Amino acid sequence: MAGLYIHIPFCRGRCPYCDFYSIVADEETMLNYPDLISAEAELISIGLRGKLHIETIYIGGGTPSINQKVLTEIIHNVKCYFDTTEVTEFTIEVNPEDVANLEIDALKNTGINRVSLGVQSLDDKQLKVLGRRTNEETIQRAYYKLRDSGVDNVSIDLIYGLTEGGMRVWDETLDKVASMKPDHISIYELSIREDNPMLRYKAYDDEVVTMYSHAISKLTSAGYRHYEISNLALNDRFCLHNLNYWKCVEYMGLGPSASSFLNGVRYTNYLDLDLYHHAISRRQLPIEHTEVLNEERRAREAMVLALRLVEGVDIEEFKKKYHYDAKILLKDIPAHIKCNLINENYDRISLTPMGLTLSDELFAYLI
Predict the structure, then answer these.
(1) Residue 283: left (phi > 0), alpha (psi -120 to 50), or beta?
(2) Closest Cα to residue 211, out of 158, 157, 154?
């Protein structure tokens, strides 16, 4: 069983903070896209000599909700080349401003049973700074339309770390979102490159740490379970697709910039629609990079991914699967950092609350 990710790169405009591959495309380009995804899926099926059994599906972007006809056709085509009969979770990313025009029942009929709503903030000034094409009123209407239409698994994405409004607005957004009771909440730090003009809106590191800690405290008090660095779930409605990533379950990616991981090999598609299209038109898989992971690299990456989970690493299971002692992999981390950021027990390794907050600094020692 594997996960399937499908990338739909089209957007109405690029958000200034976004690092995911996206383009503003004309109608013809969008309408031709399902054929490209179908052709890639067919090539993969031929290479695998059969249908890959899929457990979870995640459609991201870009803006997958930008054109429902294109989306529906992609889903129909993909099902011809993968075994989706045992899919337990099928997520689509949706922008709030698209929900009013979506036929929700038609989406559900394709098998979609989870929606990730790109909220980012419930403050109109912050939304403007982020370049979002929505406002709080539209977001609220979108959320409750999904609920009223019978979507019983909704996740909300939020961004923290902006100077605009600071902690006051962040606290208000958390209160509003908690009162909406989405099944899942993801909180992501605003990540901006040094040459991006938006850098002036990024809070200082100590403020960012405070915002993160405040969010975890407030949302857990509201009944959410903090299960991964950036993710919390109500009633254990975890994101199964991402959970499989963190547990190193194999996955397949379709579309430009998508990655796959099968049999210890990582494949990354072209980060450009034209190059992707050119490869497909020549009946070639659109792979730009291939990386064969040796045993140590696999163990180290698995360690980093597992430590993203609050439950951490089961030492015995890790050794059975990767033939490495998890504690030995920690030897390169300075003792003064290890004692503050890592919990080491006889059977399990996990990050402390401060370790979860400073995980990027810690993981640099492991990779």
Answers:
(1) left
(2) 158
Domain residues for the domain of 332 are 313-363
Contact (CB, 8 A) for 142 and 117: yes
Query: Which value, to the nearest 10 degrees, does the dihedral of the CA atoms of residues 338, 191, 136, 170 take?
Result: 40
Q: Is residue 22 domain-resident?
A: yes
> At 150, phi and psi to the nearest 5?
90, 15
Based on DSSP, count helices (H) and strands (E) in the chain, helices before strands.
14, 16
Answer yes or no: is 302 within a domain.
no
pLDDT digits (tens, 9 = 90+) for 126-180: 999 999 999 999 999 999 999 999 999 999 999 999 998 899 999 999 999 999 9
- Where is 140: in which H helix or E strand? helix 136-148
DSSP string for residues in 216-271: HHHHHHTTEEEEETTEEEETT---HHHHHHHTT--EEEESTT-EEEETTEEEEE-S
Name residue 39's amino acid. A
Q: Examine the domain organization and report whether 343 and 230 are in the same domain.
A: no
CA-nearest of 354, 349, 348 to 366 is 349
Residue 264: inside a domain, yes or no?
Answer: no
89 three-class SS: strand
Single out the residue in 217, 244, 271 at which a domain terminates: 244
pTM, rounded to two decimals: 0.96
Indicate if 337 and 234 belong to the same structural domain.
no
Tell me how many domains the chain contains.
Answer: 2
pLDDT at site 14:
84
The CATH number assigned to the domain holding 103 equals 3.20.20.70
The two three-digit tokens of residue 29, written as one number: 């380009």
On whether residue 358 sits in a domain, the answer given is yes
Q: Which of 213, 244, 275 is the last residue of a domain?
A: 244
Query: Is residue 196's pLDDT more than 90?
Result: no
Burial 306-325 (b: 16+ CB within 10 A, else e): bbbbbebbbbeebbeebebe
Burial 233-264 (b: 16+ CB within 10 A, else e): bbeebbbbbbbbbbeebbbbbbbbbbbbbeee
